[in-house]
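step=encode ok
step=design start
structure_in=
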């Protein structure tokens, strides 16, 4: 069994749980983009995630070099689209509000479809980029997650 590591992880929601996930992913050396609609929360997270990731080194739960590699590619998303664009993994970490989660996943899904449409136009025009591959595969996963939490 071959495990493919993510080229980018997007964490949507920059509260305590989102910061924890972002720090854990960064401590594995993965590029992470964190996004929150609340600018104050996002700014706090931008400083909190590196602190938490480095704390894992102090606890012997992570290696300094790998953590620093992950933090070199740690970004604060300026929009939902920018955060999820080219992400192999999207971690939803917003408040426990079913309607808000449904809206968020629908927004992610619509952005994935738009990215896929752009990718298809590029392919037809003959200048498809290799970075489009993440967008091409993103819509099916987002669609499945959106449907899975809808109340029956």
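sequence_out=
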């Amino acid at each position: 069994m071959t495990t493919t590591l993510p080229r980018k992880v997007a964490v949507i929601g920059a509260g305590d749980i989102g910061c924890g996930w972002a720090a854990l992913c960064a401590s594995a050396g993965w590029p992470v983009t964190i996004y929150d609609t609340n600018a104050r929360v996002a700014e706090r997270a931008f400083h909190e995630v590196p602190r938490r990731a480095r704390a894992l080194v102090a606890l012997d739960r992570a290696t300094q070099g790998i953590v620093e590699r992950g933090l070199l590619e740690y970004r604060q998303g300026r929009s939902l689209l920018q955060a999820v664009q080219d992400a192999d993994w999207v971690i939803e970490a917003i408040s426990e509000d079913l309607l808000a989660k449904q809206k968020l996943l629908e927004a992610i899904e619509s952005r994935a479809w738009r990215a896929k449409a752009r990718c298809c136009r590029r392919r037809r025009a003959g200048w498809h980029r290799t970075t489009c591959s993440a967008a091409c595969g993103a819509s099916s996963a987002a669609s499945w997650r959106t449907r899975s939490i809808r109340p029956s």
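step=design ok
step=annotate ok -> The helical segments are 16-27, 39-58, 64-72, 80-84, 98-125, 132-148.
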